[in-house]
Amino acid sequence: MDVNIENSAWDHLTYAEKNKQLFLKQEQTLDMFLERGAISKAQHDKSLHDLIEKMGIEG
What we know:
about 0% strand, mainly alpha, 3 helices
């Protein structure tokens, strides 16, 4: 049932809002990888830069 609630909330978001939420989730994942030493700072920064470019997020 929780999935239906989340999907219901997701359905009401605009395309831009969905993109922003996806971006924030990916950014959070990259930050967690960096904090745990799974990736280097350089890898984090490159991945974040690529994500920003691909998703068209403005800083």
